[in-house]
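Quick one: examine this chain and its backbone structure tokens and tell me how the chain folds. Here goes:
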Amino acid sequence: MKEHMIDSNGVKIKVYEYSQTGEPLLLLHYMGGSSAIWRSIIPSFIEKYRVIAIDLRGHGKSDQPATGYQLDTFVQDVRVVLDALEIEKVNIVGSSLGCYIGTRFASMYPERALSLVNSEGALVDKSERANLEPKEEYLNKYFSAPEQEFESRETLIQHMKENWLPWNKEREMVMKDFEPRKLKNGRVTFISKRDTLRQIAEDLYDKKIEHLYENIHCSVLFLPAEKEGELNEKLAFIKNVERKLNNSKTVVIPETSHAMMFDHSKELINEIKNFFDYTV
């Protein structure tokens, strides 16, 4: 594996290149996560694809600027990374936030996207949900609480084992070399700052995603989670945008929740591979 730290307009983006041959495959993680969420997925693709995973700005080992968490800024980070690695065209697999970034990238640079996999993300326009709270109420509900603090890395990991359930080898792989963010009071917390996550959520709240699919030329695999909620609403959204696409496929893996790479990694791998074999 090669590691890179690539400068994107003054913000350093951490990049992990797991293999150097084959068609490029870019993995984009969910909000609050890091490239480590893909560790159970990566080994199944490195023989055939040039697998690359990045820590988005504000996450993992990338820089955490005070501002600059708009969707288009994330997209430009991706473009800069691909340019630095001399990658002209790429397959993109995203989870949640990563799906929004991948979809926006494929819309802005349709000639550079070979395929797009959206795992539980970019499947509905948030601001048009009938049951979604007003913007400030929504943001305060999820992002106004103080950051969690822990005495040490060990107590943080123990907290995760007790609360990030079901604790299994896929989750353990994510945390094996986890380096918490140190606080001024000597305690530690999670890497991404609460204000960073709020800025991301605030920007996404107002985004209209449906029209982005009008300019996407590549094949798209939609993977809505069965148990995440609002499945019928997401399927209706997908059905509508499919009319804008040249080729697409929708699969609902039974019993899946938001981050399906942890509890249904084998099924997720199989669906992505089947999609690539058919379209790429």
User: Anything to note?
Assistant: The two ends are 24 Å apart (CA to CA). The beta strands are 2-8, 11-17, 23-28, 49-54, 90-95, 113-119, 181-182, 188-189, 219-223, 248-250.
